[in-house]
Design brief:
- The structure is a single chain.
- This protein is mainly α.
- The protein contains five helices and three strands; from the N terminus they run E-H-E-H-E-H-H-H.
- The protein has helices spanning about 30-40, 60-65, 80, 110-125, 125-135; strands at about 20-25, 55, 75.
- Helix 4 (about 110-125) crosses helix 5.
Length: about 150
């Protein structure tokens, strides 16, 4: 495993053989893995990575491969990348893959459901949206901040 290799500057840089193992979530069943595959295809390098991809069960497992140095790099959710200690990250343009739509639903009634609705209201507030955007959770049509 190579150490002290500069992070890629562009997604297409992953075609360079210095990146021996590239971790992604399994695109057959993991939404972030499918998005990674789509981005790599759009960058024109998917076929070149054959034999170098390490598939995690999910996006967290893909990150763990990189954290434990079982992969040189991992393509993961921005929300995981920005809180990863000691790592560098390269944001992938949202136009490189289909949108990853997620929803928040409050079920039930009573005190716990009321507290959950308060959380939803905070998330929808300007302060909550600023936090969510910082971690890569965008509303449809919302653009990431630099």
């Amino acid at each position: 495993m190579q150490r002290h290799v500069a992070a890629p500057k562009h997604l297409a840089d992953l075609a360079d053989p210095r990146w021996k193992r590239i971790a992604i979530a399994n695109p057959e069943h993991a939404p972030y893995g499918l998005a990674a595959k789509q981005a790599l295809e759009k960058a024109g390098i998917w076929a070149q990575l054959d034999g170098r991809l390490v598939l995690g069960e999910n996006v967290q497992a893909a990150l763990q491969y990189a954290q434990t140095r079982n992969a040189d790099v991992a393509i993961v959710a921005l929300s995981l990348a920005v809180v990863n200690d000691g790592g560098e990250f390269l944001p992938i343009e949202p136009t490189m893959h289909e949108p990853l739509d997620q929803e928040l639903v409050v079920c039930g009634t009573g005190e716990e459901a009321d507290r959950a609705r308060q959380l939803v209201a905070f998330i929808a507030s300007p302060d909550g949206r600023e936090i969510m955007t910082r971690y890569g959770f965008l509303l449809p049509g919302e653009q990431p901040k630099p």
